[in-house]
Amino acid sequence: MKIVSLWVCAAVLLAVAPCRAQSGPVDEQWRPRGIYSLMWAPHALRQGVPPCFELDYIDGATLYMPWAEIEPEPGNIRWELIDNCLDVARREGKVVNLGFFGGHYAPQWVIDNCPTWTNPSQHMHAGMSANNAAAKVVYPLPWTDEYLDPWFTFIGKVAERYGDDSNVGYLMLSGPGGQAIEMGYRIKDEHFEDFREKSGYSARKIIDAWKRVIDFYAKCWTHKPVCINIAMIPGDKGTKKTMQVPLAVEAYALEVFGDRALFINTYLNAIWFEKQDMKKPGDHAAPMVYHFRALSNYATTGGEMFWSSSEPDESVNGPLGGALQVGDEWGMTFFHVYQSDIAPFGATEPRPDYARAMRQERERLGLTSE
């Protein structure tokens, strides 16, 4: 019965997928093809840019940074978080992709002026400033003008500064998501009804917020790709995570951006691969896994990788290699790999075993490493 239910799930998802597949192959000018270091911009600024851009098996970096770090005060934007890496990328002829954490990583001055909900399920990541003394995660409600207006002002300034820079690649399209750059919310089932009741959450509200964000990015980020980190989140019934919201957001992004819309998913990584059969995923993951596999037929997709760096040889030869192979089978053309796996911050040399795996993957992508 379980196998039958998963095949039914896959068939339904294919049936409701956007009709992009009918319009021909994706225009290659918008399709990134390569391996990008996933780098925490504040670390690169404080500790120096680690081995990355000079490596023949790395095609550039995707810089992630909390909104609170880059705009700690209204209009006071710390461009150096980006420019120090961008300068190195220019020298090496590589690209930098940009990603900003909204949601509970919003600046305090934004949170103080927004309706909020405090999540008892989650604490801030280690090393991050908490939004309150109890270190609980505080969500600004992302469908409100109090949240979206300053977000749009910030993203507009980013687009004005980097939209024409030839060494800047795609921009992660984010803002309404609750967890870093991702679409999802890390709220335990027992807390979600409290969130729904106190925040007024509904699938329609969050979908409309995403549509507003998509429309704004389309106006200011006019001739480069955008990338959305797709994830399941609760819909209107109960607390179970569903495909209701991601399918609606994905379809609208394809309608607005066409081939400039890229999609990435965090399911496909070495650690997750160890725990899950990607070809026969569990019921909780099957809807997204089957859909994302089909998505590559009509859109550009990528995967976010991380591995068990405490046992590098075993991981490179086992789950990391396996996860990369699945990504290839699914038609993914770009991957985010953690900079701390390539070479830790402060290190001067990359891990040689990791280099072998990345060179092999670039060959599978039709790229050469010199």
What's the CATH H-level superfamily name? Glycosidases
Q: What is the percent of helical residues?
A: 40-55%
Average pLDDT: 83
Poorly predicted runs: 1-22, 126-134
Q: Which percent band covers the strand fraction? A: 15-25%
Order of helices and strands: HEHEHHEHEEHEHHEEEHEHHEHHEHH
Structural class by SSE content: alpha/beta
How would a textbook summarize the main sheet? 8 strands, parallel, barrel
Query: How many β strands by DSSP?
Result: 12
What fold name goes in the CATH topology slot?
Answer: TIM Barrel
* Strand order, sheet with most strands: 1-2-3-6-7-10-11-12
| Spatial extent as radius of gyration | 20 Å
According to CATH, what is the class? Answer: Alpha Beta
Number of helices: 15
The rounded distance between the terminal residues' Cα atoms is 50 Å
Architecture (CATH level 2) name: Alpha-Beta Barrel
Overall spatial form: globular
How many individual domains? 1
Structure description:
α1 (2-16) packs across α11. This protein has helices at residues 2-16, 41-47, 67-70, 80-92, 108-111, 145-162, 189-199, 203-220, 244-257, 270-275, 286-295, 312-317, 319-330, 339-342, 352-364, and strands at residues 34-40, 60-66, 95-101, 116-123, 136-140, 168-172, 226-229, 233-234, 241-242, 261-265, 300-305, 334-338. It is α/β, with parallel strands linked by helices. The model is unreliable at 1-22 and 126-134 (pLDDT under 50). A hairpin with a 6-residue loop joins β8 and β9 (241-242). The strands form 3 sheets. An 8-stranded parallel beta barrel has the order 1-2-3-6-7-10-11-12, surrounded by 5 helices. The chain has a two-stranded antiparallel sheet with strand order 4-5. It has a two-stranded antiparallel ribbon with strand order 8-9. The protein has a single domain, classed as TIM Barrel, CATH 3.20.20.
